[in-house]
């Protein structure tokens, strides 16, 4: 039996409008990681996804490619990240998920990586280049030994059968990629996308679902939340970080997150 | 140990399909259908007819008398440089475009470094009347301008990859991203034995025509199918995989792979993956990869754009790992010398990639009567400017 972690607690208490915010560790400045996390929590989001920067992020669009590059240029590494996160549980209580690509983790050492995650209080992982079979064959055992939940992605092309299999092997939320796309794609939600959301909604899967990729404002967040437990915002948030000054960073994050939730935010001038 | 791919797409520890879920349906479709399609009689006939009439196969196995005299061995050159478009790359693009048609795809995308694979892809797309987009690093577009124009002349759209180091690995990233964005109607023609399973084995199968021909031709010329040594250069490793394929499991045949050492293996400016790489994951497969200790992929360097890749196909990582392949690292200056030497001795100006394989003759041991086949993967026309800049001829 698994012990309950922060992800379980969140979804037990909240089934609608769950807001998960992604940003890249070490961006915009190397030491911004934990302050940005604190601001995301203060702003009223529900989950924090911390991106581990990689030189070759194949599932990401220009905005997140750029934030990865800047973070690496700033000197970000997994070693540095764990040092930054060492004290995070003193100030951050939301579920924290690390998101990134496999190669840096393999270099760091998978076992050591998982141990560090547990030590600093990370709840789960999203690794876009880790498909289900490889997860089951090589990673599942060690993740669960260190209490880490793995989130799988599904896309409009994923068959019903495979979605059910993924659901069966999931112990976190399912990340519904909103369209055929890399991150940071066109904004807004089409009818075709809504039909996909509805199709997945009717499959009767047991894990909660969050919709991500191309969610950027109050309207798309609300629409996505209608069809799932909530949504994930990445590129649009990175743009806020990019446009903020060091002094305004905290404030801008708060305004953006509140705007996503209640609609009072002028995206055209800020993002 | 038998060199072969297992049912999960691994050669020993290397290979697999580490891809985002968004690409899973495409990769699954390829994995489940490629063997059935390419082993089909009708497909085989179309493939070999095109290789014969359009590409100009079989390419000659040429006994290089003056080179042999100089190196005191019996040296044959497998003349992939005489393929249409000037390199072996077209063997693979012919195969994959026929496959794409069978799969009902309407568009083709590809990555390219030196532009040879891009040209070979643009060529077969023109041949089949299919829309073609080639991703190429901005830096490479500058270095390989004539090939950019060739692709355009053939009707392809060339899109600069502007992220990262703006070379081959970034072009590959961009092609993968665009495949994620267009998964339904588009086929991605990968240019070497890299990428997620089944690409490495599929590309090797299309290129294996090289060693199939060598066997037959050597039988005619030497009365034996097996040389003592086969030498090929390795970027991603497709020409080498093709030249080695039918000899993988013939222990008497030595397989020599020439990697690019750039300015020297320990200079920080090289592409000698087996010498410098560690186990990693890039572009969908687990393989040897040049990377920092934090697991960031490093920028390789080679004077030849076609060898300028930080990884190596998983089958070569396996050949290296189990000791079946002998890997030598050839420096820029030595490759250039070998290219000039072949030009003067045999009247053949090789691609600088292939010149790396030629120089390996100086870096391995062999006996005076050994029969050595060197895979001359491409011709040097595209490299004229580099030869001119080099100047020492
Ligand atoms: C002539 C030639 N040889 C070799 C290569 C390296 O590729 P591979 O190792 O896949 O054969 C290239 C790549 O562009 C090439 O153009």
From TrEMBL, chain B:
Enzyme class, first EC level, given as a word: lyase
CDD domains for this protein: Trp-synth_B
Pathway membership, UniProt: Amino-acid biosynthesis; L-tryptophan biosynthesis; L-tryptophan from chorismate: step 5/5
Gene3D superfamilies: 3.40.50.1100
Gene Ontology CC annotations of this record: cytoplasm
Keyword terms of this UniProt record: Amino-acid biosynthesis, Aromatic amino acid biosynthesis, Lyase, Pyridoxal phosphate, Tryptophan biosynthesis
HAMAP family (alphabetical): Trp_synth_beta (MF_00133)
Protein known as: Tryptophan synthase beta chain
Organism expressing this protein natively: Litoribacter ruber
């Amino acid at each position: 039996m698994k012990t309950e972690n922060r992800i379980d607690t969140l979804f037990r208490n909240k089934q609608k409008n769950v807001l998960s915010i992604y940003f890249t560790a070490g961006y915009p400045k190397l030491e911004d990681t934990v302050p940005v996390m604190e601001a995301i929590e203060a702003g009223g989001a529900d989950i924090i996804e911390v991106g581990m920067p990689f030189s070759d992020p194949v599932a990401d669009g220009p905005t997140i490619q750029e934030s990865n590059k800047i973070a690496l240029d700033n000197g970000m590494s997994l070693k540095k990240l764990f040092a930054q996160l060492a004290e995070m549980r003193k100030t951050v209580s939301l579920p924290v998920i690390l998101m990134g690509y496999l190669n840096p983790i393999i270099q760091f050492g998978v076992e050591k990586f998982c141990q560090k995650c547990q030590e600093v209080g990370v709840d789960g992982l999203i690794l876009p280049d880790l498909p289900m079979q490889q997860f089951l064959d090589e990673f599942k055992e060690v993740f669960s030994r260190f209490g880490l939940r793995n989130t799988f992605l599904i896309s409009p092309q994923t068959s019903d059968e495979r979605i059910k299999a993924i659901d069966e092997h999931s112990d976190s939320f399912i990340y519904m990629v909103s369209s055929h796309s890399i991150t940071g794609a066109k904004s807004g939600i089409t009818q075709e996308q809504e039909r996909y959301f509805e199709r997945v909604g009717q499959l009767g899967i047991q894990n909660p679902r969050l919709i991500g990729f191309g969610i950027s404002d109050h309207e798309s967040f609300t629409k996505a939340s209608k069809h799932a437990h909530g949504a994930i915002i990445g590129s649009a948030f990175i743009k806020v970080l990019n446009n903020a000054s060091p002094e305004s960073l905290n404030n801008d994050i708060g305004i953006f997150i509140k705007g996503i939730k209640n609609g009072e935010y002028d995206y055209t001038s800020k993002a | 140990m038998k060199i072969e791919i297992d049912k999960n797409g691994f050669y020993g520890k290397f290979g697999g399909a580490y891809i985002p879920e968004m690409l899973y349906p495409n990769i699954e479709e390829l994995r489940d259908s490629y063997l059935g399609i390419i082993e089909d009689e009708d497909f085989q006939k179309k493939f070999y007819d095109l290789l014969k009439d359009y590409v100009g196969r079989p390419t000659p196995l040429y006994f290089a008398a003056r080179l042999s005299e100089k190196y005191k061995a019996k040296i044959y050159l497998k003349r992939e440089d005489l393929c249409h478009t000037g390199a072996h790359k077209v063997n693979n693009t012919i195969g994959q475009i026929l496959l794409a048609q069978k799969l009902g795809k309407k568009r083709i995308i590809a990555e390219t470094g030196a532009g040879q694979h891009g040209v070979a892809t643009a060529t077969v797309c023109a041949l089949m009347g299919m829309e073609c987009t080639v991703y190429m690093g901005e830096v490479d577009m500058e270095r390989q301008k004539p090939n950019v124009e060739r692709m355009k002349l053939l009707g392809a759209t060339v899109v600069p990859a502007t992220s990262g180091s703006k070379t081959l690995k970034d072009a590959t990233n961009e092609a993968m991203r665009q495949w994620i964005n267009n998964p339904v109607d588009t086929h991605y023609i990968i240019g070497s034995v890299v990428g997620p399973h089944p690409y490495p084995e599929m590309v090797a199968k299309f290129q294996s025509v090289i060693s199939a021909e060598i066997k037959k031709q050597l039988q005619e010329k030497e009365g034996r199918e097996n040389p003592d040594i086969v030498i090929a250069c390795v970027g991603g490793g497709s020409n080498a995989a093709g030249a080695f394929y039918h000899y993988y499991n013939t222990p008497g045949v030595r397989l020599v792979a020439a990697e690019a050492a750039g300015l020297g293996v320990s200079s920080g400016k090289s592409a000698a993956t087996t010498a410098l790489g560690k186990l990693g994951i890039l572009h969908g497969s687990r393989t040897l990869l040049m990377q920092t200790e934090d697991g960031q992929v490093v920028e390789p360097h080679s004077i030849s754009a076609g060898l300028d890749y930080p990884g190596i196909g998983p089958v070569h990582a396996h050949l290296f790992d189990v000791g079946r392949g002998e890997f030598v690292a050839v420096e820029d200056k030595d490759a250039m010398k070998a290219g000039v030497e072949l030009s003067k001795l045999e009247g053949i100006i090789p691609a600088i990639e292939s010149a790396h394989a030629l120089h390996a003759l100086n870096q391995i041991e062999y006996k005076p009567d050994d029969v050595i086949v060197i895979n001359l993967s491409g011709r040097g026309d595209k490299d004229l400017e580099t030869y001119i800049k080099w100047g020492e001829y």
